[in-house]
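ok so i was messing around last nite and threw this chain in just to see what happens. nothing serious, just curious
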Amino acid sequence: MSSRDESEDEVLEAVGALAEPVRRRLYRYVAETPGATGRDAAADAAGISRSLAAFHLDKLVEAGLLAVTYQRLSGRSGPGAGRPSKLYLRAPGERAVSLPPRSYGSAGRLLAGVVDGAGLDRELQSAARAAGAAEVPAADDGPVALLRARGYEPYLDGTTVRLNNCPFHALADEFPALTCGMNLAYIEGLLPGCAGGEGWTAAMDPLPEGCCVALTSGAQSP
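result:
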């Protein structure tokens, strides 16, 4: 069996692990939660027992969809602080299934390389802003619902709406300035067309994880 076949089999097995509904709910909860989460919180979110949650979470780890870290939730350290808790978070990397196989990522990297080399950042941002403005959201979709539907996984951080997922992560790693500028322009184009979007502002405010864009509202509320 070729390495390509092995890679495709691994992806299919990983995606197949999500066919079970409870496992799918747990994965979505962990993936959409910033940072790491424990078994108790995941069990509550899925409406199941802690032991059942632990079983399915560990299966998702085996499938390569989740990763594990250990932390003392009490914040204490040293003797008497207790054992660190087992926490789960979304595993790094991406998995996509295309039957038959396609290579859109390779085309995207090639195109980004040409645009970057030609210094066409402004033209790309203008096109991205126009593409965002051309979208027609549902009448009652506000900025948070709109971005959630597009895979950004928004969450509230104080009065700022941050985005837990970057839909362009692979390109952003290789062409950060180009891709992040395009992403910001696209979101700026989206906002005026959604319910209440006129009072929102998008700006670059990167964290170690997630999307580099953050949003604030003049009303300070999502």
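not much to say yet. The radius of gyration is 20 Å.
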